[in-house]
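Thread: "does anyone have the structure for this chain?"

Original post by V.I.:
We have the sequence but no experimental structure in hand. Need at least a predicted one for the grant figures.
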Amino acid sequence: RELMGNRTVDIILNTGLASMRLNSTDVKCLHAQAGDELVRGGNLIGRQVLQDLVEAGIDIEGTEFCCDHCNVGKPLEDARWTLNDARRELGWQINKQWNEQGA
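Reply from O.Q.:
Generated one for you, tokens below.
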């Protein structure tokens, strides 16, 4: 609120991530549901997604630099990670778990 002002924050919270309004019946991607739960709370689907990730051993707490792409004050070229890095790491984690379960 300090950075963007009350009006902007209220609009974002009332609209929701990926245009998910409170009590909406819209079907959205699971990552959008999880993001909505993290930002606003009250998203039962997002809460279940996050719980399933934790139960699968995936850290949902983030890191000191995971917000680099959300910080409008930080140029993307200065971000300390890329989406490709995240996809590659997730792929390794999934393959490792899949191989361990299949062994």
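V.I.: this helps a lot. The chain has a mean pLDDT of 77.
O.Q.: and Helices lie at 6-15, 30-39, 44-55, 83-102.
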